[in-house]
Sequence to fold (432 residues):
Amino acid sequence: MRIGVLGTGMVGKAIATKLVEVGHEVRMGSRDAANEKAAEWAGSVGEGASQGTFAAAAAFGELVFNCTAGEASLDALELAGEEALRDKVLVDVSNSLDFSQGMPPSLGVCNTDSLGEQIQRRFPEARVVKTLNTVNNEVMVDPGLVAGDHDLFVCGDDEGAKAEVAALLESFGWSRERIIDLGGIRAARGTEGYVLLWLALLNSLGTAHLNIRVVR
Amino acid sequence: MRIGVLGTGMVGKAIATKLVEVGHEVRMGSRDAANEKAAEWAGSVGEGASQGTFAAAAAFGELVFNCTAGEASLDALELAGEEALRDKVLVDVSNSLDFSQGMPPSLGVCNTDSLGEQIQRRFPEARVVKTLNTVNNEVMVDPGLVAGDHDLFVCGDDEGAKAEVAALLESFGWSRERIIDLGGIRAARGTEGYVLLWLALLNSLGTAHLNIRVVR
Fold:
């Protein structure tokens, strides 16, 4: 499958690299076609990896990952373009963490909205699925870094899109039984709000290789 | 021990009843000394249970639980009185959920503050410990309602207060190894933010008898 990955940070690199490893053709997108980090990534991965603007990456992908920083996501997707995102599965991995006031950071919109919902509202013809934003970038693509059973959440308004994403997540190493469907995209405020607890756990446990398992 | 429980809702009743069961003398506090729910509770429990104003309950307790609704907590504690709370362990169980706009509710202060921190700032000589706010009131006092291992969080700036609270939690049925100390009271924004995920889980799993286990 051809996949566009928007974002050249640790999350974008981790996901783009994993996608190539499991057999996809990936174009990493950034604001500037000559982005050094993206070029370096494409060069280091080689076959299956390319890079370009947000618009080029979105147009290339049959499916698109938003791995940009949360506060920049809407702008990046604007540059990707509504037309390039139309009818495509758009996997939103973003969290909006504002560290400008030190630790713990604040979450821009967690209280009465979420980035996932904002993105779905702005691009109503994209099929937004929120997932992976509750774990560290290394754990995203290698769940075995955390011992035992632990869970990943998906939410979104399009059932078919969630099924496609669940299949991709399985190829990353997540077992199907550990992928919890929280329902519509509105549940994104749950997973984005949880990041505040994740940060407290990071701080007290001293490792980012952590996750939660839901029990009942 | 003599314990004051502020609040006559489901959380206050569950905790006050459990505290009497495990051998404490409990005074339930409410805005009005003639509160019917508090009188009914005290009557139904009998020996060890009494009721009165927020001030009477706080003065009675060697330790005080805040089980009032989050948006009313600061007012209730104001009525309890700074003097009655001085040097006492104040267990804050509150969450500020605003359902006025429908589901999912918003959290008043989760973004850049927490109720736990607000309470500690307003009552600097109380020894505030935030805990139990991440589970349903029935699970709070009967963790066996959720199968298998699952975790409870405590945070607060006073180590001795956290140790006292951990001992109380053990008497509720929580095993010591499953009580995670998140550090200072600032971590309350983590557990209060998590409630957004808890609500999404409630909605998708259809049961309030749920919790999480932290794995790494």
